[in-house]
Amino acid sequence: MTKFNVGDKVQILDASKISYAIKGGFKTGEVYPVTQINNSGRPVIESKTDHLGFYEHELKYIQKVSDKPTKNQRITALENEVAELKLIVHELRGKKSIEPSTTNTVEDIIEFEGQQYRKVDRQAREGDVVMFTVSNIHYRSKKSYKVIENVKFTDENGQVIHVYNEHKRTPENVDVYELIEGGLNPQIPIVDETIEPLTPNQQRAAIIEKAKKFIENVSSQQSSWTVNEMGNETYRQRCTVNEFIINSEKRTVVVLVKGEDSGKIFEKGIAKCNPIDVFNEHIGKAIALGRALGLDVSEFEQAVQPTEFAVGQVVEANYEDPVWAPFTISELNNKYNEGLKLWDSTDGCFISADKAKIINDTKTNYEEG
User: Which pTM was predicted?
Assistant: First the structure.
């Protein structure tokens, strides 16, 4: 039997099992002070309007509440203190003075293999680090795993498996962290001045290659019997192939996702290029395919636009007279101090670059300048 003393606090576990409790206004879950101990050693509690003494058989429906913090409360307090100390360490590493963080709490930042990653609210991609909220024979809770090609990671047994495929792993129970570019302090990136930043054209080339790889990887997953856990039901459970319909004049890409054997159309995806953007068949195919299968294609939807002319681009000239039809750049010429000229092989003449606008770079090789 629990021993009660005057001054203790008592919580009622079930008021319906205690005589006179409801009548006197005592409620389940509420905590009341012990004001006296009766002759039988049982507690008497007090509310604002009444007092209540307990029979012997009613004691199992109450519990004494301690003012001392529980073990879990003490652990939580210590974890919070550690988090504050980590924040100070992060700030000290990045700059001489300490200022409060306004973008990420310390719990949102981890270090992995000497680099720092911040937590993001999206599905994992190649190059990210993931943590699982539960443990399994394949992975441990809160341990960091690097995401490799096709959104896979190497598990505790050395096997390469999909981040979301097995054992009920979903975006809801997988924490995703992306690399913080430029250094340890997310507020003040460390810039290596010896490395020149990528130009918009170089960034454009990289996203085009990534789009091609995305299409290849997704298509291979569609045509296999691998069970996917990302995407919609068609991507997760059906064996399908894709038929792309490209209309460069209307600047649209349509994909029909069909059953590999039946030819039945299960999904349709459409990507239409913004009038102010440059059309690219590969980026459009990636966007259309992702939309059709319920996959994240935000990085392709936000692709950087080229800012410099390059061989292979299709441009349109805005001369009022004569009217020039769109043409493909076959040569660049900036000789004779006349400014950059674009060679139109169809009409056999040079067009001034300041009169031209890039409208399509599907066949452009940016690596050749």
Answer: 0.51
